[in-house]
Amino acid sequence: MRISELSEHTGVPIATIKYYLREGLVPEGARTSATQATYDRTHLERIRVIRALIAAGVSIAGARKVIAALDDPPDSGHDLLGAAHAAVTPPLDDGLDVAEAERLVAGLGWRPGLCDREVLGGVARSLDALRGSGFTVPDEVMAAYLDALRAIARAEIAGIPTESPEAAVRYVVLGSVLVEPLLLALRRVAEQIASAERFGASEAKE
Amino acid sequence: MRISELSEHTGVPIATIKYYLREGLVPEGARTSATQATYDRTHLERIRVIRALIAAGVSIAGARKVIAALDDPPDSGHDLLGAAHAAVTPPLDDGLDVAEAERLVAGLGWRPGLCDREVLGGVARSLDALRGSGFTVPDEVMAAYLDALRAIARAEIAGIPTESPEAAVRYVVLGSVLVEPLLLALRRVAEQIASAERFGASEAKE
Questions:
Q1: DSSP state, A113?
Q2: CB-based contact (8 Å) between B59 and chain A?
């Protein structure tokens, strides 16, 4: 198909697709003349993936790393997850103290040595931000978070498909990032339901 | 204390504090002369809250709504949660179909009528983005998400302090938003641990 059809099918403007091509995020099409190229399903899917990553708040640089992992899959499932996380995790700031994050993680029988330090750094950074705002997560609530996220992670990792490396890459890289907005949105729904249960709100807000 | 001290204690530049003052996000200090004012703990805490909200990705407009809920607390806990969510939830797009989100929510014995439609809209929007990228959440994983988030929400709502409306407002408004990065960061740690359990990664990544 032509670039105009790619644009129609994906809803992404032609200028943006050209930008993705220049940036190497989308592979070149097959040249049919000096000024024309033709594209196929691969290009279509790639553009959809990029659009979804960007809609989920991933930067162009982060999208590039995700695309690199899709193009050249690491050997093991664990390394794959590491690549996915690296694509969306900021580097560890100098001077960021991860000791508290390690204690939090270790306190639940998890071994912090199994985690990338950048990922632990994300926990440390969010704990710092909470402390800075003067907000404290009650211990019982923190315990509920850890239990619930452990259950979520186990289900997710158990669900990694093994039929092909491509399928595994897609699942890990996209699932890790694109599911975040869904989880946050579902949490808000769950909070409203739990709040209605506790405080007895009237039904049918239209 | 003077504005320079406010800046030192919070790490927020004086120019930014002046912007917050102009925007009405931080209340005026007590005038001591035509060009000087003095500030107290209230101002310090308010600036910390704003900084934390912005660090968590909340817009200035969203921060303004959160501040309004802090300044003028709604009567019931349930309305309070609604105000917190409204501050951080985009309005419902025309044409966004929330039917699938309602089915997802109803399928677990939740009553969609108990939720604000904007919050359901968040679920619908994230489901659309996932579909657009060609990513499907396996049924067992979705079931794990719903169970886990229900457990999280129950613990959070049970933890709402009742000793004062101010304490409840702080807890709901800030907890609802500021905890999001912590949950996402802990999920990544949990994923790496679960992945190490399944694929047997070597320990001690330094």
A1: G
A2: no
What are the φ and ψ backbone dihedral angles of A31, each rounded to 5 degrees? -65, 130
| φ, ψ dihedrals at A85, nearest 5° | -65, -40
Average pLDDT over residues A37-55: 86
Confidence class of residue B166 from pLDDT cuts 50, 70 and 90?
low
Q: Which residues contact B100 (CB under 8 A, 6 or more apart)?
A: B124, B127
In three-state form (DSSP H/G/I as H, E/B as E, the rest C), the secondary structure along A4-17 is: HHHHHHHCCCHHHH
B114 touches A203 (CB < 8 A): yes
pTM tops 0.90, yes or no: no
pLDDT in tens, A58-72: 788 888 887 887 777
Compute φ and ψ for B12, nearest 5 degrees. -100, 130
User: Do the chains contact at A148 and B146, CB–CB below 8 Å?
Assistant: no
The set of residues, in sequence order, having a beta carbon less than 8 Å from that of A41 and lying 6+ positions away, is: none
DSSP state of A93: P
CB contact under 8 A, B149 and A199: no
User: DSSP class of residue B174?
Assistant: I
Is the ipTM here above 0.95?
no
Q: What is the DSSP string of A18-57?
A: HHHHHTTSS---EESSSS-EE--HHHHHHHHHHHHHHHTT
Choose between B80 and A17: higher pLDDT. Answer: A17
Longest CA pairwise span in chain A (Å):
68
Contact A191 B56 (CB under 8 A): no
What are A102-137's pLDDT values in tens digits?
A: 888 876 667 777 788 888 888 998 888 888 777 889
Q: Position of tokens 């930008």?
A: A19
Residue type (1 letter), A103: R
- Within an 8 Å CB–CB cutoff, is residue A97 touching chain B? no
Which single residue is written with the structure tokens 């005038």? B31
Nearest to A38 by CA among A47, A46, A29: A29
Tokens 């939830």 correspond to: B89
A47 interface with B at CB cutoff 8 Å? no
